[in-house]
């Protein structure tokens, strides 16, 4: 919504006790500035009444008037609307009056007889100030309105995300119990009633058992994704080099005979939630190993780049790579590239890493080329 002054345009109140001067001056100003709304009053008392009723942005007033003089009226106006532009006119060069006018905050002090060109010059300057203030008011109101809209949308989005994450957690948790029961009964049939089943029946039960385990693993992944999306981020300076070495050793223990060479930079630290950042590195290292371990000269590298005082971390491999135009798809939950179809996974690991990095206030992105490997970068 615009301010009142913006809605009304610009008004000028002219206060003068001499009728002919009041009429002539008003006519000249109206011709020169047709966009102005001209208000008139015959003394300080009626002038202040007119001011309170109309709240003009500009006041031009004589000083020496009966009942209430111009300086007294100006004092009352400034107490009511401090930003009002006031121009004082007087027939006497009175130092005491001038000092008082300055103390009140009167913009300009002009001696009579009035030079109309001087009046025009002063009014041009004052109008430029008023218009600038109106534009600032418009912009401030627009900014307030946009900020209010942004705050509402952010609150709505946060609520929707919270509800979605709670829904994911509830669904995944509630699905796990029947999955466990189905798996258990299938296992019982295979182990205790195998004699009553023919080969086709046993095959069907093994398929049931295998797919239930796969579904159970998927539910576990969903639960972790929901948990990591909701966990409070508690940052501290952490040894990422040490963390990367621990993850490397764990991966190599799980893959006996794996000949992948790891290069981990020393002394890499990051201001992060160490528990959540470990999940990021586990996913990035696991992803790199999965897509490069079949190469004879497989190599995985972890390090850091200081770019324009911004710390950029990376995990690089020389595996199968990907088409760069598909880079953004990598971080979408359950989105897998065509080249991934033969490799096990649910397509949630990189999405989890992306969510965690976002919650740190950082960014994650990938660069790659088919057959030439991939590099995943992130900042915190």
UniProtKB/TrEMBL annotation:
GO terms for biological process: osmosensory signaling via phosphorelay pathway. One of its GO terms (molecular function) is phosphorelay response regulator activity. Pfam families: HATPase_c (PF02518), HisKA (PF00512), Response_reg (PF00072). PROSITE patterns: HIS_KIN, RESPONSE_REGULATORY. Residues 170-380 form the Histidine kinase domain. InterPro entries: BphY/WalK/GraS-like, CheY-like_superfamily, HATPase_C_sf, HATPase_dom, His_kinase_dom, HisK_dim/P_dom, HisK_dim/P_sf, Sig_transdc_His_kin-like_C. Its EC number is 2.7.13.3. The modification 4-aspartylphosphate is found at residue 62. It is an enzyme of class 2 (transferase). It comes from the Bacteria. Residues 11-127 form the Response regulatory domain. It catalyses: ATP + protein L-histidine = ADP + protein N-phospho-L-histidine. This is histidine kinase. It comes from Geobacter hydrogenophilus.
């Amino acid at each position: 919504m615009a301010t009142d002054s913006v809605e009304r345009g610009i008004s000028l109140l002219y206060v003068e006790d001499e009728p002919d001067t009041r009429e002539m001056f008003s006519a000249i100003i109206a011709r020169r500035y047709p966009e102005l709304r001209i208000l008139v009053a015959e003394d300080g008392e009626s002038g202040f009444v007119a001011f309170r009723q109309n709240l003009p942005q500009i006041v031009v007033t004589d000083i020496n008037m009966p009942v209430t003089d111009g300086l007294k009226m100006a004092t009352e106006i400034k107490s009511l609307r401090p930003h009002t532009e006031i121009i004082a006119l007087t027939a006497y060069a009175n130092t005491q009056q001038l000092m008082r006018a300055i103390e009140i905050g009167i913009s300009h002090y002009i001696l009579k007889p009035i030079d109309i060109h001087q009046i025009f010059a002063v009014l041009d300057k004052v109008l430029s100030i008023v218009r600038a203030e109106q534009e600032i008011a418009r912009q401030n109101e627009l900014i307030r309105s946009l900020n209010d809209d942004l705050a509402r949308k952010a609150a709505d989005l946060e609520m929707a995300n919270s509800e979605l994450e709670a829904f994911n957690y509830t669904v995944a948790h509630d699905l796990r119990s029947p999955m466990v029961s189905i798996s258990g009964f299938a296992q019982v049939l295979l182990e205790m009633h195998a004699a009553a089943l023919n080969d086709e029946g046993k095959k069907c039960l093994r398929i049931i058992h295998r797919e239930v385990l796969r579904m159970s693993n998927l539910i576990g992944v969903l639960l972790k994704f929901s948990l990591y999306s909701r966990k409070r981020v508690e940052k501290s300076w952490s040894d990422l080099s040490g963390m990367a070495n621990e993850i490397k050793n764990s991966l190599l223990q799980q893959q006996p005979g794996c000949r992948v060479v790891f290069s981990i930079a020393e002394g890499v630290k990051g201001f992060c939630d160490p528990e959540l950042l470990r999940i990021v590195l586990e996913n990035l290292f696991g992803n790199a190993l999965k897509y490069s371990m079949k190469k004879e000269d497989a190599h995985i590298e972890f390090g850091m780049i200081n770019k324009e005082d911004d710390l950029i971390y990376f995990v690089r491999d020389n595996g199968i790579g990907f088409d760069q135009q598909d880079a953004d798809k990598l971080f979408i939950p359950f989105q897998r590239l065509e080249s991934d179809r033969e490799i096990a996974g649910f397509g949630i690991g990189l999405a989890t890493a992306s969510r965690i990095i976002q919650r740190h206030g950082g960014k994650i992105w990938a660069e790659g080329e088919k057959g030439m490997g991939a590099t995943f970068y992130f900042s915190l």
